[in-house]
Task: structure prediction
Amino acid sequence: MSRSRFKTIVLALAATFIAVSLVSFPQESVNASKQGLKIWWGTVFPSLLPFFIICELLINFGVVKFIGVILEPLMKPLFKVPGVGGFVWAMGMVSGFPTGARLTVLLRQEKQLSKVEAERLVCFTNSSSPLFIIGAVSISFFHNAQLGAVLILSHYLGNICIGLMMRFYGKEQPQDPKEARDEALLRRAFSALHTTRMKEKRPIGKLLGDAVISSVHTLLMIGGFIILFSVINRLLSSLHITQFLGELVAYALRLFHLPEALSTPLISGLFEITLGGQMTSQVQGVSLMHKAIIISFILAFSGLSVQAQVASLLAQSDISFKPFFVSRIIHGFLAGFFTFLLWEPVYHANSSAHVLPVSLFAQEGWFYGNFLTLMNIGPALTIITLMIYIIIFIKRMKNV
Result:
């Protein structure tokens, strides 16, 4: 049997299995859909929308090109990617999944990245946002603001290591002729900004409308994946498949001297990070350090739900998904290892001596206050934006 026919049979059987499971467990499916929808319209949509719109405008106005020229001396030697990768990296860290993938695809479509450079870049520019790690995981799930410091350091240190490793990925391609390097850096940066802006012929109103349409379209796709994988996760649990896989994972956890009780939350986290994080925090009789190691792995692996979102975005270009998937696995082990190393010097030292700014992470602090505000206004902002999206879309359809 050929490989393509085997793949066809597997996909058909998987889709049939999910359809039969949906009919068999209708109430569980509806509850899981509601949970996924709540996460999307209350947190994901309002937190990512501004970043998506602004990033697209910055690319069109040439600001990203300007930043790319400035950061070229840093990004090329370290990660073997153009300077524009620095902008993608920063925005990916601030706004979280899957901003890095979306920006990488946009820059690849703009020919600012080669295929190999884009595959390198996407592997270390997708990460969980600080707001999610501190607000959702540390405060909402664990009720422990100090935990966020360890998780953030482990997560981003692992991402930096992935970037350094990916510099050895792929064959070097001939570089395009560049301007004379003795020219002042700022002069070259401003020249790149002006050239990019002059190439953009669309009026500002059209640019803004296109940015809104494109961003909402991407977020609708992300919402669909979140709901789908929330349902799949719940169905696997109802069919006791999660428990079965948990027994297999328990053996692997024993090799790393981790409690077997964390196997089921880990399996859930491999599908959807929010549910995995919540289940990990609820495990009884397990030390906080062991829970933190599992949470770090889940955040770094990012779950099949996020990976499906990234795969869907990468499919719009010639960027391969395989390097990204492999890097998520490596990042998971690195993040867990860094959590183990940093536990004593960061978590315990910070708890006793307050080395880090505790007020920033406390329940009356900045992160917690902003997280609560986002949770309160998120649904309203989502509805208003969707209405604007529909109005713009209808007007453009009439003009066609």
About this structure: Residues 177-182 have pLDDT under 50 and may be disordered. DSSP finds 18 helices and no strands in the chain.
